[in-house]
Every structure is written in structure tokens, then in C-alpha cells.
Design a protein that fits this description.
Structural class: alpha/beta
Radius of gyration: 25 Å
Number of helices: 20
CATH class of one domain: Alpha Beta
CATH topology of one domain: Diaminopimelate Epimerase, Chain A, domain 1
Shape: globular
CATH architecture of one domain: Roll
Bound molecules: zinc ion
Number of strands: 23
Strand content: 15-25%
Length: about 575
């Protein structure tokens, strides 16, 4: 009797553990790339709850199948670990889904026509907000240019009663109409008054009579932007949902959000409590919200045990962008000798924040585009690491963009353990004109140095800087491995020795992106025990010829073992 009981108990125990091992979902029937070097591909994956139970061959996966197991047959398609957008602006993405998208506009006339359409649909006095224009991508230059930019008269003529605010593709300048300037009172203020308002790090472009032309650079944008009415909570919730949907549609399962303020963070927490998260967010606190950063440094990092919302980084800006010549260079711009760009913050503050961040376990992620900015930031990080040796080893501080680096500074990334978070798609969009800003020598030796950084041992986190570029990871993957524009120019690619291999590009969107957020042990590759986040593509991104990559479509996006998007 006693024995029988023991045997029954044992039997129960065995069947219990066996039951526990049964998969909720099995995915098979296609090529599955794992981002694991030792076993780069597998035939099948079994999922239990939100995690991967097994990754291996068709035969072995059978053990995990029960009558309740759901099966996804890939039908020959390709699956990878879920893609991570390694540097984007989550709310910016949501807003861009809601506002006038001017990214594809071919010239000033087309931009104006788009605004005219929006005005026709708007109520008098409503703000028309848009973004994404870039004067260097236009097929013809407007007749009147001041400092390389168009002037507002044509824009103002199509929207006399609605204020218009159009952000530059880089986000570092805005183009506004007369009505917006009238509301902001910009015309009435003296130059001296305005400069006082602006402080450092901003410019209102004026014609030779001193009239503002409608272009507001860097901090000057806020003179106008502060008059745009604040969003209601309903609008913000809509922005959140639109951003989530856009990520899923594009195969993005995780998102590194490069700068969040208090209000938006509160909204995220509320949406999380309401169970509205469908992809995972890694938050960088906006460094300009000093009170928020201070509060978090005292309270410490927030790592979500369910992995939806993690707050453990701070975002700083050390300079602007190349397009608006705001990037901070060691030598003057090749196409405007009187300027070398400018810093957007005191380097002493970078050091101070870095020290505090190390002590409280936060990662620092600093925007740096120009070679001067990159060097200054590496210098500050290095001083902070030396001062806090105990915390330095796994600090994983990042430089966001790291677009133009002096050759001497390239090996310093790996040496210091600093992660370059680089957006390969910027090469496709910007390289054709960036050479005007930097000249040939600097472009060749120091711009978009992916392979040199990888060879030196750095982990590259890839991404799009959405909404600066569309969030589409396929275009970015194409840029990473071809170094061409999206039109396939030039043949062979720009500085081809700096291309990533397909495997490196995949890693930069998966495992290395996870590393950039201290998450390589829970995601970024297809291995038992990791989160079941996957992206299914219409064709094999790893083997199709270069010129076919852009034809790839996202067919399905799974997050936490659930299908969250399926292409109809
Ligand atoms: Zn950004």
C-alpha cells in the first residue's frame, strides 16, 4: 500500500513535470535564424507561455507537442529573433502616424501643396503640424535661399490663418509660417531680446534685412513650439496605440526609446497597468528633465519582471545634426568654413551626470554626431569610468549615432566598453550630401564606420531614429549590408569596406541590440529560456541577392509567444 502510494505520487510528479514541458505553440516549416553563433539556424521552435521552451530539429520538437499545442507552419518563410529598434522616439513615431508626413516630399512646391490639403481639412486657427522635410533631398532648389534653407513666403501664402510648424527630418530645425511667428510674437521682438530668450544653442535664420525666414534651428524651435496646444490624455493614448501598431507592422518587438519626459513616462506606466503593451520598451530618461533624472538617480533603475517597460538609462544631447550644420566638428564644415557646429550642453554636466549615473546603476546614452562631440563624450565617459572603477566594467554607456568619428577615437569604443548605437539607414539617406559637409577625407576615414568598430570589438546597436527615418528595419538592414541609397546607388556601395555582413546586421538588430539594454540574457536570440519574440519575413533576408532585400515583407510579429500582427 505504502509502495503503491509512492509509485502513484511519483507517477503524478512525472506526469506533472511532463505536462509542464508541453508547448503552447510550435513553429516549424521554414528557415529559422537564431542569432546564436554555435547554431545559427534551427528547424523548429517550441514555446511555453511567453518563453522559448526548445529550439532545435523537427524530430525533437515532437516531444513538446500535445493535442492543445498550436502549430504555426512557416510554409518556407523565414523567421528571426524579434527585431529591436535600437534608437527611436516612441511618441515621435505615434505623432508621425498622426501628423503630416513630409518625408517623401520632392521639393518646396510639393511640401506647400501637402500643407494646403491639410489646411482645407482643418478648422481656422488649428495648428498644422508635420515633419520629415529635408531641403537637401529635394530635386530642385527654391529660387530664394537663405543659409541654404527655403523661406516662408510660399508656405505662408497657402496657410494665412492656420499656424504651421514643420519639423526638419533631423528634428534639429523647424520651418514655420507667418501666422505661427505672429502668434509667437517673433517679429515684434528685438534681436537682443530674442537672443536672451534663446540662450545658447539656437538660431533664428534671418534674411539680410533682418526678417526671420521661418527657419528655427535647435533650441530656437521652442519659441514657436511652446505655442502649440498641449495634448489631452486621450490624444496621448492614441499616439501610444498608433506607435505600438506601427512597430508590430514592421516586425519590431522591442524599442529603445531615446528620451522620455515625466508626462509621457506616466502615460506609459498607466498603459502598462491597463495591459496595453504589445511590444517591449526600454526607456532613456530625457536629460533635459533634470528633476526627473535626479529623482530616478535617487530611486534607482526600474527593471520590469515581465519585461514590458524598463527604465535604466538617461539620454543626453552633445550636439546637433550634420544637415543643419549643428554637429560639432574638430575642423570647420567643408561647405561653410565659418562654423564647426556647436555643443548643445556643457561637457562638465556630461561628466557630472555620468558619475551620478554610474553610482546609481544607470546607463548614459549621449547623442553625438560630429567627431568633436564623439571625442568629448568619450573623454568624459573615460574620466567617469576611472573615477568609479567598480561600476565601470558593466556600465555599457552608449553614444547615440556616432556618425562621424576621428580615426584615433574608433578603437576607444571597444576599449572603454562604450556602445555605438548607429542607424545604418542614415547612410542611405545622408551620405550623398554629407560629403559636402565633411569633404572626402573625413567621410572616408571617419563616417559611418561600422566594420572598423565591429572589428575593434564594439557591439553595434542598429535602428532608424524613427521618426527621423521610417521605422522599417528592412530598409535599414539593406543599408547595413550594401551601403547604398534605397535607389541602389552607387553600385558596390559607399566605402564598401565598412559594410556589415548579413550576420552582423542581423545581430545588430537582435542580440547586440539586446546587449545595448542589458537584456542579452533574456532576448535577442532564439534559445530555450529566452522570451518568445519573433519576426517572420516573406523571404530569406540572409541569402537573397542585395537588390532583392528591399522587396522583403514582414508577415508576422510575435511577442511573448503571441501573434500580435499578421499581414492580411
Ligand atoms: Zn534620436
Amino acid at each position: 500500500m505504502k509502495y503503491l502510494c509512492l509509485i502513484t505520487c511519483l507517477g503524478l510528479l512525472i506526469s506533472c513535470t511532463e505536462k509542464k514541458q508541453m508547448a503552447d505553440l510550435i513553429i516549424r516549416g521554414g528557415k529559422i535564424y537564431t542569432s546564436v553563433e554555435a547554431s545559427p539556424t534551427v528547424e523548429a521552435v517550441a514555446v511555453k507561455g511567453d518563453k522559448i521552451l526548445f529550439a532545435g530539429n523537427e524530430q525533437e520538437v515532437e516531444k513538446f507537442k500535445s493535442a492543445q499545442t498550436q502549430i504555426i507552419d512557416l510554409q518556407g518563410k523565414t523567421m528571426t529573433p524579434g527585431f529591436t529598434e535600437g534608437h527611436g522616439h516612441f511618441f515621435g513615431l505615434g505623432y508621425s502616424e498622426m501628423s503630416l508626413d513630409l518625408a517623401g516630399t520632392k521639393n518646396y512646391e510639393e511640401l506647400t501643396a501637402r500643407v494646403k490639403e491639410a489646411v482645407a481639412k482643418a478648422k481656422p486657427g488649428d495648428w498644422i503640424v508635420g515633419r520629415g522635410w529635408h531641403q537637401d533631398r529635394w530635386d530642385k532648389k527654391p529660387k530664394k535661399l537663405v543659409k541654404g534653407f527655403q523661406t516662408h513666403e510660399l508656405l505662408s501664402s497657402v496657410s494665412p490663418d492656420n499656424p504651421v510648424f514643420l519639423s526638419h527630418a533631423s528634428g534639429h530645425a523647424a520651418f514655420v509660417n507667418a501666422k505661427a511667428m505672429e502668434i509667437a510674437g517673433v517679429n515684434q521682438l528685438s534681436k537682443e531680446q530674442l537672443q536672451k530668450d534663446l540662450g545658447e544653442g539656437g538660431e533664428i535664420i534671418r534674411d539680410n534685412l533682418g526678417n526671420p525666414t521661418g527657419i528655427f534651428v535647435e533650441h530656437a524651435q521652442s519659441l514657436i513650439a511652446k505655442h502649440i496646444p498641449e495634448d489631452t490624455e486621450e490624444t496621448l493614448a492614441k499616439v501610444f496605440d498608433l506607435a505600438m501598431a506601427a512597430c508590430l507592422r514592421n516586425g519590431i518587438t522591442s524599442f529603445h526609446d531615446a528620451g522620455i519626459d515625466r508626462d509621457n513616462l506616466l502615460l506609459l506606466k498607466k498603459r502598462k497597468t491597463e495591459g496595453k503593451f504589445k511590444i517591449r520598451l526600454y526607456e532613456m530618461l530625457s536629460g533635459s528633465d533634470r528633476a526627473l533624472v535626479k529623482e530616478y538617480f535617487q530611486k534607482g533603475i526600474e527593471v520590469d519582471s515581465a519585461h514590458w517597460l524598463t527604465v535604466r538609462a538617461v539620454k543626453l544631447y552633445s550636439d546637433g545634426a550634420l544637415g543643419s550644420r549643428g554637429a560639432w566638428l574638430l575642423q570647420p564644415y567643408s561647405d561653410r568654413h565659418e562654423t564647426s557646429g556647436m555643443p548643445l550642453m556643457e561637457m562638465d554636466s556630461v561628466l557630472k551626470i555620468s558619475n551620478l549615473a554610474l553610482a546609481s546603476g544607470f546607463q548614459v546614452c549621449t547623442h553625438a554626431i560630429g567627431d568633436r562631440a564623439n571625442r568629448e563624450i568619450l573623454d568624459r565617459y573615460e574620466i567617469a569610468f576611472k573615477k568609479n572603477p567598480g561600476h565601470a566594467a558593466n556600465a555599457r554607456f552608449r553614444i547615440e549615432h556616432a556618425q562621424h568619428i576621428d580615426p584615433h577615437d574608433i578603437p576607444r569604443f571597444a576599449k572603454l566598453g562604450v556602445i555605438p548605437a548607429m542607424q545604418a539607414i542614415h547612410l542611405s539617406s545622408d551620405r550623398p550630401w554629407a560629403i559636402d559637409r565633411l569633404g572626402e577625407k573625413r567621410i572616408k576615414e571617419g563616417a559611418y564606420m561600422w566594420q572598423s568598430l565591429l572589428k575593434s570589438g564594439a557591439h553595434i546597436v542598429n535602428g532608424t531614429d524613427v521618426p527621423v527615418e521610417p521605422i522599417n528595419p528592412i530598409a535599414c538592414f539593406f543599408a547595413s549590408v550594401t551601403r547604398q541609397t534605397l535607389k541602389g546607388q552607387p553600385v558596390g556601395g559607399y566605402e564598401p569596406e565598412e559594410k556589415m555582413t548579413r550576420a552582423q546586421a542581423l545581430k545588430s538588430y537582435t542580440l547586440d541590440a539586446a546587449y545595448g539594454a542589458f537584456e542579452e540574457n533574456i532576448k535577442g536570440s532564439i534559445e530555450a529560456g529566452k522570451l518568445a519574440d519573433f519576426t517572420v519575413f516573406s523571404q530569406d533576408l540572409m541569402t537573397v541577392p542585395d537588390e532583392k532585400i528591399l522587396l522583403t515583407e514582414v508577415l508576422m510579429t510575435l511577442v511573448g509567444g503571441k501573434v500580435r500582427y499578421e499581414k492580411k
